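Holo model, coenzyme A. Inputs:
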Amino acid sequence: LTVRPLGVDDLQAVSRLNQLSFGYTSDRPLTDPTGMHGIHGSDGALVAAAHIRSYEQLWGGRRVPMGGICGVVVDPHARRHGIATTLLRGLLSVLRAAGQPISVLYPTGVGVYRPVGWEVVGSLEDTRIPTADLVPRRAGTGVAVRAAVAADLDAIAGIYAGLGSSGLLMRDGVEFPGGARAVLDHDVATVAVTDDGTPVGFSSYARGSGYRASELRIWNCHATTAPAMAALLQSLSSWSTVAPTVLWRGPTDELALHLSRAVPPPVDRQPWMLRVVDAPAAIAARGFAQGVSVEASFALADPHVPEHVGPWTLRVGGGVGTLQRCKAGSLPQLSIAGLALLYAGAADTGALVRTGHLDREVAGLDEAFAGQPPRICDYF
Ligand SMILES: CC(C)(COP(=O)(O)OP(=O)(O)OC[C@H]1O[C@@H](n2cnc3c(N)ncnc32)[C@H](O)[C@@H]1OP(=O)(O)O)[C@@H](O)C(=O)NCCC(=O)NCCS
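Output:
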């Protein structure tokens, strides 16, 4: 079974497999096979397909090329014969050749991806919050809100990118052709501006429908200063008379620090998985905390990428890192999923030892990858 890039002749079969597998109907034909890969059976029929999207994801303040995998489907009559595994293994070579050293996906079932080295490192959350509870603890003094306009788009893109949180998808490039302009497509798009007119925050949301029982769908609410966030929240809370709740997209830990009332738990939590596809390139591409200086050696285990297997030394200093071959010895063994967990700051070495991803502690690894848990605000 060979994994091949798909072409326009395959699109009808991809569409059929997708609609069958994911349970939707669509009259809109697929037109662009870019990023699609699949496996054909001996009779030439398509038996499996997947789509690699070209993203950049922020890690340690730097943009890392990331292959986002979606639309993984296997023909119902070919399932449970290892075809998805073959397809995913094939995609690893495709990603490496494309210069995408990491890969992310939203799994319907983690059991399909774990055996090939993807591991859960975070989740995309949606949280239902009473609109009246969005009144901020402190007023947004020195900041006003107004409608966002086209002239604000560069500033909006800058505020989003400047959030600096690891895990965020950069909203530009081929997968976000509209860039920040998409914000203006929402029913309401707001900017918070300082007295001199400088945008320091933005929000955008769908109004929902109905007179008294609507729900605002918050797609964005981001600010670079506390008064700007307070002003945006004050503006959102003004909807409480007609929209008693909001459905908030993304993490709420920082939001909670602005509010008097506790934020409820998420109503939906979609896990996402990370795979380190080309370890030296993944380390070189990301940023590390300034002031951290680490040298740590380990042997990497990866059943699917032979180039990874064996001894490596990680060196971190001056905000950057390298992973270079070193002499074999009796080094601690780290699994490739363990490296994904470290990379994402989703587990420390103690947790890796306890879960069998590392056979003994390695000094320096926790320091190297310490940081905030990753956050993501976009589904694909
Ligand atoms: C999920 C799907 C792609 C799996 O394809 P497949 O060819 O049957 O998978 P494989 O035979 O290669 O199995 C790979 C691993 O996944 C596991 N797996 C397969 N189907 C699974 C399921 N439905 N739930 C949990 N684990 C599953 C297998 O146990 C196997 O693990 P193992 O190697 O440790 O035994 C296929 O069932 C499908 O198309 N489902 C509908 C669409 C879908 O859910 N796609 C995934 C989108 S994220």
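The two ends are 27 Å apart (CA to CA). The chain has eleven helices and 16 strands.
Archived with the compound record.
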